[in-house]
Design goal:
Radius of gyration: 16 Å
Number of domains: 2
Order of helices and strands: EEHEEEHHHH
Pfam families: Fer2 (PF00111), Fer2_2 (PF01799)
Keywords: Iron, Metal-binding, Oxidoreductase
CATH topology of the largest domain: DNA polymerase, domain 1
Protein name: 2Fe-2S iron-sulfur cluster binding domain-containing protein
InterPro entries: 2Fe-2S-bd, 2Fe-2S-bd_dom_sf, 2Fe-2S_ferredoxin-like_sf, 2Fe-2S_ferredoxin-type, 2Fe2S_fd_BS, Aldehyde_Oxdr_Iron-Sulfur, Beta-grasp_dom_sf
CATH class of the largest domain: Mainly Alpha
Length: 170
């Protein structure tokens, strides 16, 4: 039994009670994914599994046998920051930085949801073929990721710059 983490196959822990979060942090020494509340309420532990965002503190590692997990450590490619990471820097989308890894992974998963046409609570037209990623839609979709230090507006600006412009260009 194994999973792929950031492009590399790794064995699953022998103890089926180990959370995906603890496996990433303690077994694989990937400290980017944060343990915030450990109850699924803050979003600090958000990672991508097969491109979809999940809360790794609520997931058992063994549930993801054969799947691909992407953490914040896997976002940069070839020494280049992911465009969203660069936008976070440009827009000062972090202060303490604790929520940043979860915010980044969640935003990437959120953008994929929008592209697939998955509606949110505030989506106006549920029959529309495309969803406009305006600031209200973005804030609703990112509401599960909490920022406690005050960088929220910079986070929204960074995500909006990368994904709203991308959506408008397509």
């Amino acid at each position: 039994m194994s999973i792929t983490v950031n492009g590399l196959p790794v064995p699953l822990p022998s103890d089926p009670r180990v959370s995906l979060l603890d496996m990433l942090r303690e077994d694989l020494h990937l400290p980017g994914t944060k343990k915030g509340c450990n109850q699924g309420a803050c979003g600090a532990c958000t990672v991508l599994v097969d491109g979809q965002r999940i809360l790794s503190c609520l997931a058992l590692a063994v549930q993801y046998d054969g799947r691909a997990v992407m953490t914040v450590e896997g976002l940069a490619q070839g020494g280049e920051l992911h465009p969203l990471q660069a936008a976070f820097v440009e827009h000062d989308g972090f202060q303490c930085g604790y929520c940043t890894p979860g915010q980044l992974c969640s935003a990437i998963g959120m953008a994929a949801e929008v592209k697939r046409g998955v509606p949110s609570h505030v989506t106006g037209d549920l029959s529309a073929e495309t969803i406009a990623l305006d600031r209200e839609e973005l804030r609703e979709r990112m509401s599960g990721n909490l920022c406690r230090c005050g960088a929220h507006n910079g986070i929204v600006d960074a995500i909006f710059e990368v994904y709203a412009e991308t959506e408008a260009a397509e």
